[in-house]
Amino acid sequence: MSPHSCVKIRKEWDIVSARQLGREMAKKLGFSTVDQARIATAVSELARNIYLYAEEGQICFEVFETIERKGLRMGAFDTGPGITDISQVMQDGYTTSGGLGAGLPGVKRLMDEFDIQSEIGQGTQIKTVKWVR
Amino acid sequence: MDKIVDLDIAHYKTLLKKYIVTQDEQSLYGVELVSKSFIKNNILPEEIISLHIQALGELYPDINLDVKHSMDFLLEAMISYGLALQEVQILREEQFALKSEISVAASMQDTLLGTTIPDVSGLDIGVISIPANQLNGDYHHFVKGNDGSIGIAMADVIGKGIPAALCMSMIKYAIDSYPEDKMSPKMILKNLNRVVERNVDPSMFITMIYSQYLPSESKLMYASAGHEPGFYYNAAKGTFEEIETEGLILGVLPDTDYKQYELEIHDQDMVIFLTDGVTECRDGERFIETEEVLNVITEYIHLPAQELVTNVYKHFERLQNFQLRDDFTLLILRKEV
Amino acid sequence: MNLNVNIHEDIDKFIVNLSGEIDAYTAPELKENLLPLTKQAGNVVEINFENVEYMDSTGLGIFVSALKSTKENKSSMKLVNLQERILRLFRITGLDKIIDIDTTIRGESVNGKL
What we know:
A: alpha+beta, Heat Shock Protein 90, 5-stranded antiparallel β-sheet, 30% strand, globular, C: alpha/beta, Transcription Regulator spoIIAA, hydrolase (chain B), Phosphoserine phosphatase (chain B), phosphatase activity (chain B)
């Protein structure tokens, strides 16, 4: 397994492949079972967003090491319609009320670091990190 | 995780071990307490499962792999519950913040819209106005004119809560700007209608009854903009009559004229103004009839006006299990020699 | 309580059959369904209250908005089969003078039959 790998998301089954890759890398890095499960859930949320709203995009993983700590970097990149109001989608209760899932606030909670950028008509980039504890 | 949580974790393991051997109630009670402490310390469900898996591994190093896998599976299933729980906590905090914000608004509303019953000899006035929620969409206001006349406004904004309360402040300041003792009820309504029509969303409007009592002539003049008709109590006959009202609610058509009525008031006669929160009371699924309101008023008719309205309110509050569905305002004016 | 809004397109008009209660909770749904019909010039919209058990003042707001919309868009609206209690609400507020309401009250004799 390379330290940097991506999974393209085109159909629902690709979500499973992305989860699988994320979990394998997390396991290898030494994440606890709970954190592995959290990373997998975050992958699902990001991949499903791409599948539902952007048609095409990818989820990328990268091992990330500094002197003090190591972690898993995960990014979701799509060329979809973009998000008009990021503050709104980052609000609790915005997507979950319809039972759509944990949404982006969920991903933010599951991971340790979270950053999102979006351009209307160009796409959305979400970058996250989870540190090994 | 801090010390308390570490202690709880150790305790959980001990209790689990004991329970597996004895299946005693004491261990179950123990885990109930531990679980409460977990909740207090924001421990998520998947963390408890993880703890359980760890404890099992320590107690039974040779645990069946199938069981171990099934526990991992359960852990996975709990992740989303953990997220949902965190979300609920955040929403609860937000709700708390909103509630305190609204209660600040409510006390501000009390100050802004405050009014005192004018002290006029020969006139006994009582009024009660209770909002269904924190903010009141009903409004009443007294004005004492230089000529000795008493102006009484009663209004109800369609809708409840914040939008209604905001709207009420506008009405109050519009009325304040009129030289009331020089304007007749019908003119006040005509002017207010224009203000509301221009400034308020089309799906929102206001009903109002504006009256002026002239003590020197024992005469009540009033005009209504679609407001719930009040009642006139004829003391000599001991009967109630619905007072005659006709007029379009405020804010629908830009140019509306209102009819003005006159009522002669004799000793012990009463005029009753109310909002639909009174007439639309529900007893379970059943709506009360107008008769019932009048019967309850009759029951307490011997009391001074303020006690009278308070008792009527208490009656309907109890009838509706102390949960008002709409803002409730009742005003009674009685002539005394 | 819920409100069911059922729109039926007849030859010359839209019939909006309502059943349930119109209050602050159900009013938004009614508004969403009713307003678009009034926005089309020439549309005749008939609102059937036969199965409306309750309406509070929030409901009135919807019909005032709809009325304004019919005037702006040259469509028309008529309310039929109102229960006495609901009709009273339109009368008190003076709206019966500006909204077209069929005042034959539900439950009264129609064609000699009950």
